[in-house]
Design goal:
This protein is α/β, with parallel strands linked by helices. The protein has three domains: 46 residues; 246 residues, P-loop containing nucleotide triphosphate hydrolases (Rossmann fold, 3-Layer(aba) Sandwich), CATH 3.40.50; 51 residues. 35% of the residues lie in helices and 8% in strands. A seven-stranded mixed β-sheet has the order 3-2-1-5-7-6-4, sandwiched between helices. Helix 3 links the parallel strand 1 and strand 2. Helix 9 crosses helix 11, helix 11 crosses helix 12 and helix 13 runs antiparallel to helix 14. Bound molecules: guanosine-5'-triphosphate and magnesium ion. Guanosine-5'-triphosphate (GTP) binds next to helix 7.
Length: 490
């Protein structure tokens, strides 16, 4: 109920420093074939309890000591076991990252474990790029390239980019509901980028020759899929829907490409390249798999924690994809941020007002929602608080409590949080130096120049085979420059 203070724009910057110290995640204890199933499981149980106890001892009372509170994190050993299995059977780990806040979705401990301990290849997929400007995406790419050299980067979106998002430091809301195609997997952007990354990491596997080129080419032509490939109408997979659908594996057996993996398979299968998708809940792992498959093979939902079991899907005879349940890694990042990043089910948030305050301190929420101050006579001295924002929004939307017919602030708060996680209120974070330095502008200019030069030399040797390059290139360049100018003006 206390009025809040709007923070400087740099409060939206977030880098690796804010994620320090990073907390390790539980690893599978070593085991041998001499041990029976019960012994292995007991050992895992004990190691997990010891790990939990250790982090609670170290960070559990942090808030009372005045330092940062331990975030929410996955408490269920079964879910960690699934992660272990996916890491064990995958040749390439695809970490799916929601581009609106890449740092919170990037568990440093996992990066170090995969690249240094397991010595496996790791691809970071910036997902939901339709919700940020091209310049924000560009800046994050540069930041990640610099900070995490062993991570290969790809970009992806289930939906086309929104032109209105040319400057996402000034545009904070998609006021109108964006019309999205029902079969969105046809308009996905970036499947080629993801597959190209998987090709570039060069997985060397004796006797397995993947035709990456042919695979990538498949996504070149936007020809409609054959009847065989499309999903029957009325299927239960289209999300943004009933949050009650919790059985994510329902109906999956109908698809022939899915195999169960027995527990014996603890190293990548020698006949296939396995691409394992991991990441926080709700970042879009299952949607990415559907887009690659060009049909609905796994269930998706706007409610985090939808996928409950990992499953493999064959992309071609020697490449298979592995979807996994989203899992929250422990950190010292604020719980409000976790909720806003979509990894916690909104319906279960008991006290949503501090999350609203966290958001309102960073973006002009009352303006975005076009709220009117309740006390118009005294509008000049009026100061917004999270609670008043929620009450005003409840009035605007006609949310009233059943008994006393008072504005239902709780329902309003939930609705606002849902708008934020769905991406209709745009809360996106930026890498350090985004607002107060010209670092990223300079890098962008350099890149545009380089592209221009290579375009010029291409034009000289004009081979006019197809015009896709011309059109695409021109649009990207113009958008890029526009984003740049808007930013410099600010
Ligand atoms: N705007 C936008 N939304 C997306 C994109 N990809 C996925 N989503 C939405 O994000 C939500 C979560 O997608 P899922 O594919 O179920 O996410 P997941 O990572 O499999 O989630 P869990 O199974 O809970 O771990 C859904 O509401 C999707 O519609 C994207 O590229 N852009
Ligand atoms: Mg999923």
């Amino acid at each position: 109920m206390q009025p809040f203070h709007r923070l400087d724009k740099t409060a939206l910057e977030m880098g690796v420093e804010q994620c320090q110290p990073y907390i390790d995640f539980p690893k599978r204890p070593t085991w041998s074939y001499d041990m029976n199933k019960e012994q292995v499981e007991r050992q895992e149980e004990e190691a997990f309890q010891a790990w939990k106890q250790a982090i609670y001892e170290k960070y559990g009372d942090n808030q009372q000591n005045g330092s940062r509170q331990l975030s929410w994190f996955e408490q269920n050993l079964e879910v960690w076991r699934q992660l272990w299995r996916v890491l064990e059977i995958s040749d390439v780990i695809l970490l799916v990252i929601d581009i609106r806040n890449p740092m919170i979705h990037f568990p440093l401990a996992l990066y170090h474990y995969v690249t240094k301990d397991l010595k496996r290849k790791m691809v970071g997929v910036f997902n939901k790029i339709d919700l940020v400007s091209e310049f924000t995406l560009f800046s994050w790419q540069k930041y990640f390239e610099e900070q995490f050299p062993e991570l290969h980067l790809a970009t992806f979106s289930c939906f086309p980019m929104d032109e209105k998002l040319i400057d996402d430091t000034a545009t904070y809301a998609l006021k109108t509901r964006v019309k999205r195609p029902r079969k969105r997997y046809y308009s996905a952007q970036g499947v080629q980028s993801v597959l190209r990354c998987c090709k570039d990491v060069k997985i060397e596997k004796h006797g397995v020759n993947v035709d990456w080129h042919g695979l990538i080419q498949r996504y070149d032509d936007k020809a409609p899929m054959s009847d065989h490939d499309t999903v029957d109408g009325g299927d239960h997979f289209i999300d943004d829907d009933d949050d009650s659908d919790t059985s994510s594996t329902a109906g999956l057996d109908e698809f022939s490409g899915i195999l169960d993996i027995s527990q014996q398979n603890i190293t990548p299968h020698q006949d296939y390249v396995t691409i394992g998708l991991v990441g926080h809940p709700n970042v879009g792992k299952s949607s990415l798999i559907n887009s690659i498959m060009h049909r609905t093979v796994v269930s998706t939902s706007r409610t985090p924690g939808h996928t409950k079991h990992f499953q493999t899907i064959h992309l071609c005879e020697n490449v298979r994809l592995c979807d996994s349940p989203g899992l929250v890694f422990p950190s010292l990042l604020p719980r409000s941020l976790q909720i806003l990043s979509g990894m916690y089910p909104i319906a279960q948030v008991q006290e949503p007002y501090s999350v609203i305050q966290y958001m309102a301190e960073r973006i002009p929420l009352e303006k975005i929602l076009s709220l009117t101050p309740p006390d118009l006579d005294n509008a000049r001295n009026f100061k917004w608080s999270a609670w008043v924002i929620c009450e005003a929004y409840a009035e605007q939307r006609g949310f009233y409590t059943a008994k006393a017919a008072r504005p239902d602030a709780y329902r309003a708060a939930n609705a606002i949080l849902q708008l934020a996680t769905d991406g209709r209120i745009l809360l996106s974070f930026k890498p350090p130096g985004f607002f107060n330095t010209t670092k990223y502008e300079k890098l962008k200019i350099k890149e545009v120049d380089a592209r221009q030069n290579s375009q010029d030399s291409l034009d000289d040797s004009e081979s006019d085979d197809d015009d896709s390059n011309n059109g695409g290139g021109a649009v990207t360049t113009t958008d890029g420059q526009y984003a740049l100018l808007a930013l410099v003006d600010e």
